[in-house]
Hints:
This protein has helices at 4-9, 15-19, 39-42, 45-57, 71-79, 81-102, 124-129, 135-143, 156-165, 193-198, 236-239, 243-247, 296-318, 353-373, 413-416, 440-450, 469-474, 534-553, and strands spanning 68-69, 107-114, 145-147, 150-151, 184-185, 203-209, 227-231, 278-282, 287-289, 324-333, 380-386, 420-423, 432-434, 438-439, 462-463, 483-488, 491-497, 500-503, 516-518, 560-561, 568-569. By secondary structure, it is α/β, with parallel strands linked by helices.
Amino acid sequence: xxSTEATAGRRCSISWASTGIFPKRVGTLDKHLQxxxxxxxxxxxxxxxxxxxxILLMASVAHGEGIVYDTEYQLVREQYAEVWSDEDAGLxxxxxxxxxxxxxxxxxxxxxxDDAAYGRVGHPMLSKVTGxxxxxxxxxxxEGMTFTRMYTEPSCTPTRVATLTGRHPIRSGLTxxxxxxxxxxxxxxEVTIAEVLKEEGYSTGFFGKYHVGDIDGSYPHQNGFDxxxxxxxxxxxxxxxxxxxxxxxxxxGFTEDQQDRLxxxxxxxxxxxxxxxxxxxxxxxxxxxxxxxxxYEEQLRYVEDVHERSINYIKRNADAEDPFFMCYxxxxxxxxxxxxxxxxxxxxxxxxxxxxxIEMDRKLKEMLQVLKDEGIEENTLVIVxxxxxxxxxxxxxxxxxxxxxxxxxxxxxGGVRVPAFAYWPxxxxxxxxxxDIIHVTDLxxxxxxxxxxxxxxxxDRVIDGVDQTALLINGDAHGRRDWVHIYTGPVLAxxxxxxxxxxxxxxxxGLAGSSFFDLYKDPREEHGMMAQFLWAWEPFxxxxxxxxxxxxxxxxxxxxxxxxxxxIELIGSxx
Length: 575
Ligand SMILES: [Ca+2]
């Protein structure tokens, strides 16, 4: 039995773990999960303010002064103030050495793709289970870091907003996936990671699936990106919202062919097929519609063009004086596979999304090769990850693979725990595996730290992302988060703390309910427990209450609505 003191102490003395006296414990940061006399005090806003002031006064906390983190982080940071301060000093030295060596801050390439189950790539033995090989992902895992607990939001738009803003998307009012024509978007007042880095002189590029709004002010070139080719929505528009999509039953009733002729009165119920689903733009200029129409050919042209522009962007910026931040958010592979054009796939599940993964793997390989050829791979952090769990609703176009329960949209692990890797030769330990919890918002704060832009993070709102530079550089068990709140839409659906999880949805009022899970023993969340976790009832309740109390102090922004496609020069349809 390991005492609480010894468990917490592993972070203070790494050598303990290596002696074998204390088996490695992952995810336990907070010494106060179990009830203590301090719990009630944290509910008092005055006390919370006092803690905040104390933290601010501690000169040893050298990073992120003034940032309003979620309460949970404030409490954990207080417990590790000295340890993390020392660790931060070491990290600063390390980063300064790198900067001196390369003559600039690190480039950051953020490669994100759409919808995948944890384990789908980067684990060759599991890849064989689904009948495909993705050697580039395997190589990234071999030569970089695999995150085993990367949490996202449960769907596309929310995750993308979360990572751009460093905040749970409910805080900026964007809790739903944007489809044609919702006419909502990320408020321009949000300060994106591109803006944070731009302020430090970074060049910024966005290529691929953006999907955070269809109204003026929400587009990437209006939110810190210098040059962009971006989708307003997702892949459905180009692939399913057309006659081909209807012929194979993926869409019903979009085209006039399938509309009732006799009783249809309202001609405007269905949107016209001239909706722009992709646009290109430069900062300060008006965006221009990119897609000619809704077709699979247009989708493929887009995927190829995004790739080409990403590669060219890297080449153009490799030798530049300033570092660059590039988002290459792959427009697939879930429904961007090669199967519908009749190409020959390499996977054993040709005609499924396996082909799409293999195509993505090839593109990733090319991109990594360019970083190497340009001589910048040792000064470039590459993050590679999916944005949420698999979209199980379109089986068998997407495989039903998944070791966790649920897919896209679910608050169970299958919805929010995704394949994710970090690659930075010479800096990130090859073949390392992180058991620490990391949330997609953490990338915001971590990128800011690496780019020297912590001071550009706004201090008038809650920031959910915490700096995980220590995890990247010092490795497993150096993470700074042991919790995550999981929203589904605007509802706080579950909370994870350490290896435990509590579902809030389905709770019985007045009783804790069988809603506690031990994710180590029951990763699929199939055995909800109550009696065993009566100790955790109050700590979880308190955790939720203090998270929501901060929302009262810093209210969420209501969903921003506007006129669709304003700010985009439309070219119309070629049909
Ligand atoms: Ca997605």
